[in-house]
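In response to reviewer comment 3 from the previous cycle, which asked for concrete evidence that the modeling workflow produces usable outputs, we include below a single protein chain processed end to end. The sequence was submitted unchanged, and the resulting structure tokens are shown without manual editing.
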Amino acid sequence: MKNPAHACPNGAARADTGRTSDVRVLVVEDEQLLADAVATGLRREAMAVDVVYDGAAALERIGVNDYDVVVLDRDLPLVHGDDVCRRIVELGMPTRVLMLTASGDVSDRVEGLEIGADDYLPKPFAFSELTARVRALGRRTSVPLPPVLERAGIKLDPNRREVFRDGKEVQLAPKEFAVLEVLMRSEGAVVSAEQLLEKAWDENTDPFTNVVRVTVMTLRRKLGEPPVIVTVPGSGYRI
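The workflow returned the following structure tokens.
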């Protein structure tokens, strides 16, 4: 029987302080309590997370949205997790699959990897391990960049979730950190509000909301003077 208690984030499970952002995750798990617990924990790690509870819904979301990582329960209703994984492989998507299962048998792990899963995690699991595996898979979908991003006097460490400006640490909320990382990874290119919504929030966010503008405004204030985030009228933002 699946035990969501092992996946719920808590003080002990969060001993690993490394975090990531700019990663979009789809959690596919038929036990809603477990799925929601995993999603809540990953969002606290500054990831954008969508959740579905069956394989058919997973295929629908995968066909619409670009995900860096899919956390995929193998035993799903409507469409089996194996078939969801096969579909991702058939489409040639860069999406990485972390397969979950209640079975810890070696044969099951081998079968899951042969189907096309990139990683395999038996239940019950520690949330810190799940986070580390999602973070590692998320890195594989991106062009390798320096561990610490530096631009305009700002240093951002995605793993330690630390930001410094001119040597002084800046405390940021998860979404502020995610937005800043997206802007810094763009290396001076303009990033639209829609792109920021896609990378830093999940699909439940209203596309007409002003949350991006408000977050950028707060981020500017926390980063201090002189301003480093430039608004490009009608296009977006850049650093």
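The first strand starts at residue 24 and ends at 28. We consider this sufficient to address the reviewer's concern, and the full set will be provided in the supplementary archive.
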